[in-house]
Amino acid sequence: MNDEILDFDEVLESYEPALGLEVHVELNTASKMFCGCSTAFGDEPNSNTCPVCLGLPGALPVVNRKAVESAIRIGLALNCQIAPWGRFARKNYFYPDMTKNFQTSQYDEPIAHDGWVEIDVEGETFRVEIERAHMEEDAGKLTHAGSSGRIHGAEYSLIDYNRAGTPLIEIVSRPVLGAGAKAPAVARAYVAHLREMMRALDVSDVRMEQGSLRCDANLSLAPIGSTTLGTRTETKNVNSLRSVERAVTFEMRRQAAVLAGGGSVVQETRHFDEATGTTRSGRPKSDADDYRYFAEPDLVPVAPSAQWVEELRATLPEPPAERRRRLASEWGFDEIAMTTLVNLGALGLVEDTVAAGASPQAARKWWGTELARRSNEAGIGVDELTITPAQVAEVQRMVDEGKLTDKLARQVFDGVLAGEGDPAEVVASRGLEVVSDDGALAAAVDDVIAANPDVADKIRDGKHQAAGALIGQVMKAMRGSADAARVRELIMERLA
């Protein structure tokens, strides 16, 4: 039976939402958290495993120093305090994607705690308090065979332990109150902010579609004016910015309908359905004491020195918000344009393209439209396209010099992405440079005028806007390689 939902405006008339966001970030270390196995994505299932990450008897873990370094840098970027001493713990539960039947994590002694970030949403600044950022290992990956792709109704399930043991940082926020109607947008903006931060720190590839950045969205509703938070649900492993916003919106509407009908919200995990934009029940939500945490006996405490922490602080990049404001001012972009580039993961690409000589407007045009479309069609990030900012700037330089039209530039991108060489090589091999030779252009113009006497007469009668039809036909005849401005001049010379 489908969940009943209220209209979003009706929700806001009676209830105040409280957000709690848990963001899991897979670190881009070469090896796993406690062993030397590769963390490469997409390898043959179960090929990157060993006795340690499989939890075989007698195997002893060793902490990955690079993962600890990344965790400290993340904590510092989140304005957290870095713990001078801490231990790992065993989080016990039964689940088939962890062969040990426990997850090595941090419980009461996280590496980073008590931080904050500020995000801007529709002209309003929200401060999100960070409770903790702790280190742990990822679980394996379950693939359920069946029409739904879910465990319910599956004929069988396959387990790939390659991901088991991959270093994770879990960033846990405190409840975000007072967002009201902006709660879904705040959730999206917060995750986008963290994604941009992780990119700037170069600690993760933050590919949400591959699971290297995942969000668990906690949501509760309380009557307006209440001082007590409502019962929360946790929508697990939401893997896109759009889905974070949609999941929070749906849960607000669903929970409000439950409460308005006199029912009680069940504390549980829920799963988001991308196709329908709805959530569905998972399992009852466990509290911390249900996991029977105890100190990991096989690992020594983590005790970063104050000197090491300060050395790492000196490596932090410009904060994302400050960088966006600086670039927006330098480029003359508004907030919407900057947000779009951030969401695409193209801000750094545009910055590098500008540094290579293109104007900010041109760089934004290519990365934000043409190349974004191609990456979307290929199902990859725009930063994974096999074209560099320098090459995009080179294409734009040829456009600026009149050697290429925008249409020809798109064909140059085709060639570069197909591995045919740099832009200049593609232009030469495909014969794409704009034809500005008056002899060739004049011949094409005369042919088109002769073939369209009615249009020619209109232009002679002073209807100069009709020239556009002739220009288009000349461009088509020249396969887009004509200088449109010169074509217009030749048409008007003959007819005006």
Automatic annotation (TrEMBL):
EC id: 6.3.5.-
PANTHER family in UniProt: GLUTAMYL-TRNA GLN AMIDOTRANSFERASE SUBUNIT B MITOCHONDRIAL AND PROKARYOTIC PET112-RELATED, GLUTAMYL-TRNA(GLN) AMIDOTRANSFERASE SUBUNIT B, MITOCHONDRIAL
Residues covered by the Asn/Gln amidotransferase domain: 348-495
UniProt keyword annotations, A-Z: ATP-binding, Ligase, Nucleotide-binding, Protein biosynthesis, Transferase
NCBIfam families documented for this protein: gatB, PRK05477.1-2, PRK05477.1-3, PRK05477.1-4
SMART domains in alphabetical order: GatB_Yqey
Keyword ATP-binding belongs to the record: yes
Name under which the protein is recorded: Aspartyl/glutamyl-tRNA(Asn/Gln) amidotransferase subunit B
Top class in the EC scheme: ligase
Function text: Allows the formation of correctly charged Asn-tRNA(Asn) or Gln-tRNA(Gln) through the transamidation of misacylated Asp-tRNA(Asn) or Glu-tRNA(Gln) in organisms which lack either or both of asparaginyl-tRNA or glutaminyl-tRNA synthetases. The reaction takes place in the presence of glutamine and ATP through an activated phospho-Asp-tRNA(Asn) or phospho-Glu-tRNA(Gln).
GO biological process, alphabetically ordered: glutaminyl-tRNAGln biosynthesis via transamidation; translation
Known catalytic reactions: L-glutamyl-tRNA(Gln) + L-glutamine + ATP + H2O = L-glutaminyl-tRNA(Gln) + L-glutamate + ADP + phosphate + H(+); L-aspartyl-tRNA(Asn) + L-glutamine + ATP + H2O = L-asparaginyl-tRNA(Asn) + L-glutamate + ADP + phosphate + 2 H(+)
Name of the gene this protein is made from: gatB
Oligomeric and partner information: Heterotrimer of A, B and C subunits.
Family label: Belongs to the GatB/GatE family. GatB subfamily.
Organism: Tessaracoccus rhinocerotis
